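Sequence in, structure out. Go.
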Amino acid sequence: MIKKLKEEIGSDKIFSLDEMTAVGLLMGGNILFLKFWYSTYYNPIFNVTAIPGWKEGVSGSIVGSYNIAINRYINDTNIEAAVEVVKFLTSKETQRDYVIKNKFFSGISELYQEEETCKYIPCEISNYCQPFSIMKYNINSNNDLDSYIEKYRHYVYDYIYNNGSLSTNIKKIDDMTKFYSISIKLNDDSNIGFYFFIIYCILSFIMIISIIYPFMTRFKIHFIHLSNVLWMTTLIGSLIILSSILSLYGEISPVKCKLKGIMITMGFVISISPFIYLLSINFPEENKISNLIYRYKYTFIILIISIDGILSILLYIAPYNVYEVIINEGENFKKCLKYSTYGNIVFYFKIVYEMAIIAIAIILIFLEWNIKKIYYETRILLGTLIIDMVSFAIYNITLFTNINDYISYNGILICTLIIFGFSNYLFTFGIRIISSYIKKEQIEKDIDEFLEDNKDFKEKMRLYSTSTETNHLSSNNSGSKVGSFLPNKILDYHYRSSVSSSTTNGSNINVTNNVYNTFVTENSVTNSTQ
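Output:
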């Protein structure tokens, strides 16, 4: 409307007049109408009215005022006196006298309902006005209010006087106070949130529907190492990791930041805890701890999860800071920053605890690497841990990398969490379903290729077995060079193919044959059940 008025009944020169020039024209009566501050000192030929708008009954104005302040450094006696002065100046009686004598408006709207007051000022203007805030802006943010107003004026003038794009300048004005985030809905800002949500729904459906496989007779052979409850536990953990991406949708808040971190770490612990149990009960040498864990498996797993759960609760109640990324003439957004000092302490305890779980898992995987019963499990779990650690590293690097585009920033985080969650599911659960559909002939072909590529493996195992049977300390007999770096007891565990109740080494012989037999036996059973 302003631009239309300028182009049809005005000009750039008239619309850009300074205040002093405008006052001169107003006092001289050389104008038809003028949008200006209210005053009684102008030419009486003019009448004051509300500014016309392009919608009937809707107008706009701006209110300025005088300020009253009290010096904070005065003594208590003077403070009490100053308070009384402020009470007097802002009282209804004083303001009424001010309006009548000076014919100025007051901040007390009740005065405009009094007949006596309305004899001196146009009350209809005040009664017509409806107070509202022109913007939701925090002056304590990265830009102060003066900077905002300066930029606001610049964008408006660019459209009015320089023929700038209306949509572009409106977006720039909106961007000064708007914080962008990804959304499930399709909108003009970005559709990436919608597409990622579709991917999330599809992967979640696959994960949820696959829970039926351990209960089906045809597939039970691939889920024999854990109970159905534990398979559900690891599946739920992976689903929690995947679902953490939902916290990135909508406006970022401290609660969402804390929930995202908790869901990622707890989901990992929940998904991995059944395999910690599996590794613990298959230690190469029978022991009391393994037997105890076997007897109280659910208590053991609940204990692992509960410790992480307690740390998660402590993290949730800790204060959290959200960082505002302000982009000059760009799209601002928020991202999770860090906990308070107390929260950081708990966070580091949680990280240490989870790193300890990973370290224990890796040690047990090494010690049980050749245990026939869990031959595949150790390799699958190692691959899972590697991908989990890489995903977690990429996720944390992204959090602290200076990325000034909210789509790229959130897109990388979501991709990382999808890989983290779904690969966790795929390696620990989904691969068993996939393997059940592989034909026996293809498996035997893969075994032959494996043995062909590792011709010297048998010979190395034979030499190691001979040396360990003779003497664990005899490193000069044909033995392994690795023995000079690691204790023979650890290597003894590493090369065992079954759990032993004694410390003899006979179980180390013919490891390769045991590996081959494991391939053939398990897959023969699978095909027979099909």
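Check: The domain at 180-437 is CATH 1.20.1070 (Rhopdopsin 7-helix transmembrane proteins). Residues 460-485, 502-530 have pLDDT under 50 and may be disordered.
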